[in-house]
Amino acid sequence: MNNILKRTLLPSLMAASLAGVTLVPAKPAAADDQVLRDVGIGAVTNVVTGAVRGHGSVLGNAAKGGVTGAAVNGANGLRSHHHRRSRNLGQDIGVGAGASALTGAVTGDGKHTVGNAIDGAAVGGAIHLLTNHK
């Protein structure tokens, strides 16, 4: 009985979920028009924090900071237009820490997860300080 259910139910479920994913209209990208500014702030901040910590190459830290800056920008892009101008410090720091830790794990720098999270939190804080209410 179990095999019969698997053979009849699973293909239907897979087809329905695939159709739901591909036919539902996609929401526009969440990043706003200031994404390059935030990528630049993230890259510079992460290069500085990497140098202070004595970890990573300049290019690697800049790339990780750029990705983190884009993630912070994207998280704020999910908010309404009115609330984008008043950024949330906790959200910026949290998204920065998470994005940097994840980027470090993907790029093979998983040994330094806490340090990557600290670098990302610094990026999120810097973006918040430099761009809040602008």
The helicity comes to: over 70%
In DSSP terms, counting alpha (H) and pi (I) runs of 4 or more, how many helices? 6
The N- and C-terminal alpha carbons lie at a distance of: 62 Å
Poorly predicted ranges: 19-27
Class inferred from helices and paired strands:
mainly alpha
Largest sheet: none
What's the pLDDT, averaged over the residues? 78
Shape by Cα distribution: flat
Strand content: under 5%
Order of helices and strands: HHHHHH
Secondary structure tally: strands? 0
Rg from alpha-carbon coordinates: 19 Å
General description of the model:
The chain is mainly α and 134 residues long. Helices cover 76% and strands 0% of the residues. 34% of the residues are buried. About 7% of the residues have low confidence.
Q: What is this structure, in a nutshell?
A:
Helix content is about 75%, strand content about 0%. It is mainly alpha-helical. Residues about 20-25 have low confidence and may be disordered.
Question: What's the SSE blueprint?
Answer:
Elements: H1 2-23, H2 35-53, H3 58-77, H4 81-84, H5 89-106, H6 113-131
Helix pairs in contact: 2-3, 2-6, 3-5, 3-6, 5-6
Kindly list the characteristics that best describe this protein.
single chain, mainly alpha
